[in-house]
């Protein structure tokens, strides 16, 4: 394939921004796995199911721990001093309005899931609860609780970790909008090498398979809805082909028109339609019951948040199968979608502060999900109990048709079905659209203005693979394979958290770093001498000379003056482990006052060593004269201070020492060690 691309480029001036080291391995893996799942669906599903069962059974606790870390990490960053850092330069403005931004969050993240599981999940937990032998009221309450849990802060924290990492490194440090960039603090420029390629290949394949399976399974719900309206006579494969082709053609057109024009407009339209549908169900349904269960449900969720977060059902053996089939499967599914959704969120979040990003990504979608799931789920339970007399519960295992059966108990059923199908279609289009956009970005390292045919290529490949697997029955095995790959990517995401924290610490230190302490006393008389020192990278012998010719002379003058005032003082020298010199003023009731200076090594970064427009650096290690004090505080670099300035600095520290010693509040700290 590499030779084919090269031939087309040379022969027909065929332009491509594909990064071959990412695109070609990804296509090879995608095609190979698709063939395996398509031609051997039974064997593939059996194999991946066995692997999934082993992982879920033995490492379910690890999934719980990983997701818990993500939640705590994002909350910690949001409330920390790092929250005010912008995703971009300090003067960068957001590219999208707040409404457009939030609308696109839903479109890429969980839009289609809300339609598919809005009724289905709550009814599933109600009909088959996690804990058996609950009475009817408790079953409804627990069903709502677990629905909130699976669609709340935990799910969005998974997306938020990837999105925040990518947005920060891309917009704050001008690295490619790719997952590899999140490892820069650990790997530096090696992110552009083999490891970075492997990470991006993993992300690209995960994104492709996630969208392909969602597209395939979503067609089942769409075809069921169209059949209920009488638009199509049945849900045969030929009608499913028509649905997929129509959806993907629109998605490709939208993707080639650009993110701002395509996904933005469709997302805004769809969030309005979804809100209207939700409000209709609220008003036409059991309104008081819905509002009451929403209030109580949020309180129940908050009060049980920590126990839900850490619960692995280690002591409830009968619930462990439910736990694996729901909670762990959800965590694996969200993680498998994290490369796609996280990168999309990053793409639309330039100019936001970190605190704004985290709070919006965690709280706004989660709260909307709570409202949505309550309006649809609680209505379904109420209808099942008081109107349908258990008829809806019978469809709890048939999610494809449950939403449309639910609407049959409302007025304007046909209109509701039409609106729902329209919403599902647009959610499908925006998911496919944004997925195409992200896959093209990963495969070309985020290249701007890449050829439009690349978007069409990914859209066409998605269509072919999803239809082939839908026809052969291989979608289930592909979905299972995607869930299996979630665990290693979860480990990668933990490393993203570590690297992001290191980068944020460096960012904060850089932005709050003050001038060298010695520069506070500078004047314009010795600027040439100061410039010479700045341009000199001292070795140990240079610091030794500075200690002997400048610091020692300063200390000797001070000792003489102190002795005139009958203050006992002395000078100590130490050659191990680093050369140092100390001025010591002895005390009986207070600890001794010590002002010392030592030669401290400092490693120079490769970036500065390789920089052409700086003085030559002979070694990657230089030495600085750093002050230190008797209370074990480390001081500062004094290499730019003259003899008289060092004396002034010692007197400033000595004055501080005497002031603290005169205050009885500090006796414990001022006593001799």
TrEMBL record:
Pfam family, one: BCCT
Family membership: Belongs to the BCCT transporter (TC 2.A.15) family.
GO CC terms: plasma membrane
Coiled-coil positions: none
Natural source organism: Flavobacterium frigoris
Location, primary (coarse class): membrane
Residue spans crossing the bilayer: 21-41, 61-79, 99-119, 148-171, 198-219, 239-259, 271-291, 328-346, 358-383, 403-429, 455-475, 481-501
GO molecular function, one term: transmembrane transporter activity
Localization: Cell membrane
Keywords: Cell membrane, Membrane, Transmembrane, Transmembrane helix, Transport
InterPro entries: BCCT_CS, BCCT_transptr
Protein name, UniProt field: Choline/glycine/proline betaine transport protein
Top-level taxonomy: Bacteria, Pseudomonadati, Bacteroidota, Flavobacteriia, Flavobacteriales
Taxonomy, superkingdom: Bacteria
Topology in membrane: Multi-pass membrane protein
